[in-house]
Amino acid sequence: MHTRTTTALTAVLLLTATATACSSSSTDNKPRTASAKTTSGATASTAAKTSPLKIGTGHHWSDTDTDGSHISGTTTVKGYTQPIKMDGSLSHGLSDFEHPVWATLDVKLCADSSSTTVMSSQKPWTLGFPDDTRIQAPLVSGAGVPKPEYPVDSAAVTPGSCLRGKITFSMERGTRPDRIIYGPEGRDPVEWSVPKA
Q1: E strands, the chain, where?
Q2: For residue 176, which phi and psi values (nearest 5 degrees)?
Q3: Is residue 133 included in any domain, yes or no?
Q4: Residue 10 located in a structural domain
Q5: How many domains are there within the chain?
Q6: 147 or 66: which carries more pLDDT confidence?
Q7: Which of 84, 85, 110, 146 shows the smallest number of beta carbons within 10 Å?
Q8: CA separation (Å) from 123 to 19, 42, 151?
Q9: The domain containing residue 47 runs over which residues?
């Protein structure tokens, strides 16, 4: 009885996940089907990634938006810095960690000139750790956060233009991510490797 219930529940969850993955809106966070390649010209399979990209390597993607328009661009991790200095009172108020250490992720998104406007934000970005845990972008901004900030909320990137900024993360002292993950909804995630300290 327990096995049938688990199997039925698994099937329902898979159908729900499939239906959800097909939904989309006109933001870079939610395109439907995409083809992708690195800016070095090598085609990247969206089905299976073999190894993370190096920092500085762009990931080109292309899609059809929910309104049928063409949407495409290149997303690049320009740098990762850990640790960074944060104001002491600010750092404890913004972090969920008892002994926080802070880092910035420098990212850039460029919309192709043939694309319609692309919407971008911090939401698709996470840091992955050697123990397979992840930290999502905490969506912090304002006074005391390293500048220029990458937008917390969706920002429009018009055709042929770019958006670049820093995303600030906190983590427990003594930890360091080994990968940076860009996972817009509806697309396979792309990873960059974080150099060792």
Answers
A1: 34-38, 43-44, 58-64, 70-84, 100-111, 118-120, 125-128, 134-136, 155-157, 162-172, 179-182, 190-193
A2: -150, 135
A3: yes
A4: no
A5: 1
A6: 147
A7: 85
A8: 21, 27, 9
A9: 24-193
Assigned token pair, 173: 């002292």
Whether 2 is covered by a domain: the verdict is no
pLDDT digits (tens, 9 = 90+) for 1-53: 333 333 333 333 333 333 333 333 334 544 333 444 444 333 343 434 469 99
The 3 state secondary structure assigned to 35-69 is EEEECCCCEECCCCCCCCECCCCEEEEEEECCCCC
User: What is the number of helices (H) and of strands (E) in the chain?
Assistant: 2, 12
pTM, 2 dp: 0.74
Please report whether residue 147 resides in a domain: yes
CA distance 151 to 164: 9
Q: Residue 86: which pLDDT band, with cuts at 50, 70 and 90?
A: confident
- Candidates 183, 77, 185, 177; CA nearest to 133 is 177
Report the CATH number at residue 108: 2.60.40.1240
CB atoms near residue 159 (< 10 Å): 17
Q: Which two tokens stand for residue 123?
A: 């939401």
Cβ neighbours for 167, distance < 8 A, ≥ 6 positions apart? 104, 105, 107, 122, 125, 137, 149, 150
